Amino acid sequence: MNYNLVPYPKKIEISDELLYLGGLEIVLNAKCDSRIFKAAKTLKTELEAETGVSPKINKAFAPKNGTIRILVTSDENTEAYSIKIDENGVELTAKSQKGAFYAIQTLRQLIKGSSGYISYLEIEDEPDMENRGFYHDVSRGRVPTVEGEKKLIDILAYYKINSLQVYIEHAFDFEEYRCFLDPEGYLTAEEILELDDYCYENFIDFVPSLSTFGHLYRLLETKEYKHLCELEEFEHNPNMWKDRMLHHTIDASNPESFALICSLIDQYIPLFRSEYFNICCDETFDLCNGRNKGKDKAALYLEFTTKLIDYVSSKGKRVMMWGDIALNHPEIIPSFPKDTIMLCWDYANTPNVANIEKFAESGMTQMVCPGCSSWNHFCEVINYAKSNIVGMIDGGVKNGAMGVLNTAWGDYGHVCPLNCTLYGLVLGAARSWNNTYDVYSPEYETAVGELLYNDKTGKTVDLVKKLGDLEQVMSWGLFVLWHYGEMIYWGDFKFVPENAYIFADNAQKCFEIADELRKLGKGEMYFDLALTAEATAFVNLAAARILDKRTLDCRSAFLKWCEDYEKSWRRDNKTSDLFLITDILRRSLFD
Fold first, then answer.
1. What angle do CA 324, 325, 330 make, to 5 degrees?
2. Which of 8, 53, 392, 439 could form a disulfide with 368 if both were Cys (CB 3.0 to 4.6 A apart)?
């Protein structure tokens, strides 16, 4: 018998004999802490669903045979674990709490769909990468509720991801932002504290990530802080999302700037247990294009970031930062404090592994940062993301990176629901834990189909791949640029009326995918996947209408989609940019 497991264990031996788990008591040894007890309760619930029998949970110094025994044997800092299933029952053994926790996650996957019958087997397992992270953008359109983010944390734990960062620009209750904060568009200190506790319970390091140099558009647009913007004069783009992405960088030479950023850091740092703090400092596009024009861009960047690093270090945290600007000015890399962790990002289909090698050669500690290719789209583009994620993680393993931080950004309103980002999330988990496992194999796709989509046929994975490819014809990001009147240069394709049929045909294919997804499954996952297929269809219909001025007979279907999209959005998120998204589509389709 083969089992669908993600990540796949390093060593697994399976025999033909079966053990029935119905009614077996779950017994923790004395060293198991409250987090293992909580995980055992989840296991109990899932065992009851499979067998119809609710097992008892107990704790003992020496759990007896004939039970499901969870044994923590020491306090070592390791994530390794073993599982043995035979006539004596089930034994999960680890030298640490987190190892035992990951053993439970594997057992949860083993029993899925088993009706309580499980093969005699032995597993020995441990990860290839120490840090296996996920980066969740909560600042560019979709701000999660606490319960929504807890759903994400549960998923991360199930696939043995041990680090989470949420990207904060203006989406937190900073004192400096309160004059313009939308009550339905930010997180509070109390919410962050609750999430930090929940991450701890699931052996996830909740790392603060705060924009401190570039990407300060909302702050530097205010009357109070506008004088700290690098750009003295700024011509606003009708596309607010684009301005937020490209502007504003803070005036790095003004002492008030540093004091302002320190105030933000002081309000945010105490909320997190983590030993790390991500100061971001990426994409400082405006630097030396305004108030500091004529200055040495690399020198000014280094001066400001090293001051931030020293300040954060004085608070007892180890600094992470995005490495793009350092790579653009490699001469400054040796000047960064050696304990700084560079986040080496690249989202190309074929990533530039040479950048990973540059940081490795410099002696800097780094994490590699691929992406789920879900931003600028309603659903992740699997065929694009897969090459990126695998290439970056393989490059990281080869060059001794301390881990991976797999990203899900929210450009142009973060239209993609979390459920439509999960294939890439799971892929990052699989490859960073077991770097030699073939994630291109049919066996892997079958495992993802069953564990993630609860689909043994494999059809869901195929449909999501097809949808991602169709999104490339006219993505949400391209459409938003077009909507706001920007010229799109797209290879040899011409945006002329006679090509409208391409978008109309694409829309029809997307509607068909939505119908197929609804036939395959129920629940939140399939609800969201079908919605994103319909959204892509409406984007393409709007593109066709713009080209040939056709009249569209889909108003009632679109209004129904808006109701369902709002329902999906509000299930796990605060209002944020929801209505701006639906309004852009409505006006493009009918006005």
1. 100
2. 392
What is the C-alpha to C-alpha distance for residues 587 and 354, in angstroms, rounded to an integer? 45
**What is the 3 state secondary structure string of 7-52?**
CCCCEEEEEEEEEECCCCCEEEECCCCHHHHHHHHHHHHHHHHHHC
Strands (DSSP E) along 102-210, which ranges? 117-125, 131-137, 163-168, 205-210
Q: Nearest-CA neighbor of 29 among 110, 87, 94, 105?
A: 94
**Cα 305 versus chain centre, distance:** 26
- What letter represents residue 174's amino acid? F
DSSP state of 492: T
Across the range 95-108, mean pLDDT stands at: 98
Tokens standing for residue 186: 């930010």
Distances (CA, A) of 293 to 252, 296, 300, 528: 12, 9, 11, 47
pLDDT above 70 covers a percentage of the chain that reads 98
Q: What mean pLDDT is predicted for residues 193-215? A: 98
Q: Which of 178, 254, 167 is nearest to 215 (CA)?
A: 167
Using the predicted structure, report yes or no on whether residue 245 has a pLDDT greater than 90.
Answer: no
On the question of pLDDT at 118 being above 80, the answer is: yes
pLDDT, position 486: 81
Query: Residue 416 carries which side chain, given as an amino acid letter?
Result: C
The full set of domain ranges for the chain reads: 11-125, 131-439, 459-590
Contacts for 74 with CB less than 8 Å, ≥ 6 apart: 31, 95, 96
CA dihedral 74, 77, 82, 88 (to 10 degrees): 20
Q: Of 190, 184, 250, which is closest to residue 215 (Cα–Cα)? A: 250
Helices (H) and strands (E) in the chain, counts: 19, 15
Rg value, the chain, Cα: 25
Segment 567-587 shows an average pLDDT of 95
Domain covering 131-439 assigned CATH 3.20.20.80 in the classification: yes
Report d(CA 214, CA 287) in Å as an integer. Answer: 8
CATH architecture of 11-125: 2-Layer Sandwich (3.30)
Q: How buried is residue 260: exposed, middle or buried, by Cβ count under 10 Å (0-12/13-18/19+)? A: buried
Question: Strand 131-137 and strand 205-210: pairing?
Answer: unpaired
Q: What are phi and psi of 213, to 5 degrees?
A: -140, -70
Residues 468-497 have a mean pLDDT of 83
Question: Please, which pLDDT band fits residue 22 given cuts at 50, 70 and 90?
Answer: very high
User: What phi and psi values does residue 183 have, to the nearest 5 degrees?
Assistant: -60, -20
Written as one string, the DSSP assignment of 523-549 is: HHHHHHHHHHHHHHHHHHHHHHHHHH-
Helix (H, G, I), strand (E, B) or coil at 87: coil
| Interatomic CA distance for residues 293 and 83, integer angstroms | 62
pTM of the entire structure?
Answer: 0.97
- With CA atoms as reference, report the closest residue to 138 among 373, 428, 414: 414
CA distances 288 to 111, 235, 250, Å, are 58, 17, 10
Q: What's the CA gap between 383 and 445, in Å, rounded?
A: 13
Residue whose tokens read 């049919």: 442
Of the candidates 221, 241, 239, which has an alpha carbon nearest to the alpha carbon of residue 231? 221
- Residue type, position 299, single letter: A
CA dihedral 80, 83, 84, 89 (to 10 degrees): 140
